[in-house]
Structures are given as C-alpha cells and as structure tokens.
Specification:
Structural class of chain A: alpha+beta
Number of domains of chain A: 1
Helix content of chain A: 55-70%
Shape of chain A: globular
Order of helices and strands of chain A: HHEHHEEHH
CATH superfamily of chain A: Winged helix-like DNA-binding domain superfamily/Winged helix DNA-binding domain
Low-confidence stretches of chain A: none
Largest interface: A-B, 37 and 37 residues
Oligomer: homodimer
Strand order of the largest sheet of chain A: 1-3-2
DNA sequence: ACAAAGATCAACCAAAAGGTTGAATATGCG
DNA sequence: CGCATATTCAACCTTTTGGTTGATCTTTGT
C-alpha cells in the first residue's frame, strides 16, 4: 500500500537495507537469518525490515514463531519510472547489476 | 565524481530535491530562480543544491555573480541499473513519468 | 565609490535516523 | 508445564538532516 517515492528512495539510501534486498532476491528468509551476516543487533535489523516493509519493498508473513521476509520488487516500479524519465537509460543491464551484487552482498554469497 | 548509491538515493529521498531536478529538466537555472517557487529560505535551497551536486545529480557553474544549475542525468544510471535488476520493468514509461511531474512540479509549470 | 543583487557561511535548533541494551511476548518442543 | 527460540518493544544515546537567521563575500550597475 505505501509506495511513496520519499519512502522508497529513503529506504534504498541505506546500504544495509540494499544488501537485505539483494539477499532476498535469492530466496525468502526468516528475520534471524537475514540478520546473521550483519555485525549489528537483531533489533537493528528488525527495524530495517520495518522500514523496507513500510516502503512496500518487502512483505513479512508470520508462520508459527518465524516471520518470513519476501521481496516485493513491484514497489520499485514507480521509482524506476521516475528515474528513467530523466535518463532514457539502456533498458536492463544485468551485467552491471550483478557487479553491484558482488560488491554489496555479504561475502558468503552462494 | 561522487556517484555512490547511498548518496544518490539519499538525495532523491527528499521531495524538494526531486522537484528541483524536475525543474532543471526543462532548463538550466540560477540558484535564486530555483528557490523562487519554494516556501523556504534561499539558504535552505542552496544546501539542497549542494547535496544534489555531491550526488552528481546536478552541476553548478558560476558565471559572474550568477551560479547556474544544470541537470546531470547520467548520475542516475547506476541507481537505475540497480533498481531494474530487481524488477525487469517495462523499458521507459514516459506517460507515467509525466504524471509524476504534474504532481511534483510547482504549479506554474510552463 | 557605493548600493543592490546573487549566493554562501556560520551558528543554531528541532526532529529523524540508526544504533545499543534489556525486558517482554509469542510460539514450539520435550 | 517449563525452557529455548524468534521477534519485537521500550528507553536511551549519538549523529545526521532540514530548516532558520544574520553576517559575509563577490559581482554588477550607476
């Protein structure tokens, strides 16, 4: 529901949150597992996940005592349209994107 | 030079700054003229322009006593690639972009 | 020379961001 | 039941952000 540009861009401005998104690109994850590679408290990661959820970039579903996080890439569409309006960039450059993932993902990437 | 994703997304997270970018899409502008439609001090706008400059999103060139601001859309490329990596969105939707401009631009749009 | 215009600087302020720790709340398991 | 696990809450702290105002500096026009 909340998919305002302010919120989305602000959520994307933090490297921890971008890394989390990249991790969720591979698979849905539980909060504890999302937190594992980071050198910060679980509570801090929990807050980051709230921010991502409010931006609509992920969704969280509780099953049992585990809360699963799922990427919601559609939330990026509006922001993507906004940005492309300025640049007329090449459609999709997956090579460049994978270079980002290598840099931004925690080293244990599979 | 500085074109780091943190800086670019943070710069885009503020509605005043996005509006400024949209204004500069039409034409280069002097700082005073950029500030005119906003209900905030010139100093505040000057700071916003510094942030946009540090993000590489605009450049500023002083000619005489006037400092001209110019959009630098290339700075958006990296961020755009990053975002598209998630979504595989439709290439460019100019209609959607112009809808943004109508919402975000100060009403005196020409 | 002087005054006005264009823009930034410096000091300040309130609110938001990003983190910590320790307690609380559910849920699952033996 | 009773304990461990999964996650959040609450209070707190520090730094950053976004704004203000008044002084300053440079350039232009008369």
């Amino acid at each position: 529901m909340p998919n305002d540009l302010d919120t989305v861009f602000a959520a994307l401005a933090d490297p921890t949150r971008r890394t989390i998104l990249a991790m969720l690109l591979e698979d849905d994850m539980a909060v504890t597992d999302v937190a594992e590679p980071f050198e910060m408290s679980l509570a801090a990661i929990s807050k980051h996940l709230v921010i991502l959820t409010k931006a609509g970039l992920i969704s969280q579903e509780k099953r049992g005592r585990v809360k699963w996080c799922k990427l919601e890439p559609d939330a990026l569409r509006a922001a993507s349209v906004w940005m492309q309006g300025f640049g007329q960039f090449e459609p999709v450059n997956l090579d460049a994107f994978e270079r980002f993932l290598e840099v931004e993902l925690p080293s244990d990437e599979a």
